[in-house]
Amino acid sequence: MADLDRFKLNVPFVSCLKNIVYYSTGDEAAPPGTIGWNELEQMSTTALVGEVRNTKIRQEEIGNIQFTSGTTGMPKAAALSHYNLVNNALSVGMHCNAIEDNWNDRTIVCNVLPLYHVFGFVAGSLSGAIFGSSQVYPAPGFNADAAVKAIEKQKATHLIGTPTMFNDIINCKIELIAT
Description:
Elements: E1 21-22, E2 35-36, H1 37-42, H2 46-53, E3 62-68, E4 76-81, H3 82-96, E5 108-111, H4 118-131, E6 134-136, H5 144-154, E7 158-160, H6 163-178
Parallel strand pairs: 1-2, 5-6, 5-7
Antiparallel strand pairs: 3-4
Helix pairs in contact: 3-4, 5-6
């Protein structure tokens, strides 16, 4: 059984796992052994920011374990290195800027993709962090109405999503205009 000290987990079969951050969309408490997202947001101090900035990693270390089923339907874990993630995010911004400088600190990206998917995480959040763009997340899950409202309210300059999501957003906007 794991030692449930939420600031230093001791899980024998996953010895490198030290913390679990739990995000919920409601007011429920974080499960034992986890740190609640809202609590994590409140923990920020200048000293901790300095500690994060002074943390050194090796580029070949695993930065994310992405679960994918690809075309087989059988889930498998893909270990992505820090080098892979950062360079992928960097290339997204460079490609967006290849024709016109439009992925920068004046960019406001409305990201309607799930952050557990590499597209939403890397092309959205991580690329945005590298290029200094603002990120807007309209809802915890995809919601076309929330996306339309967030785009308008935040004056988003970019929208990333899938064709089906874009279709839903356009249809939602048409319904809003018609009413």
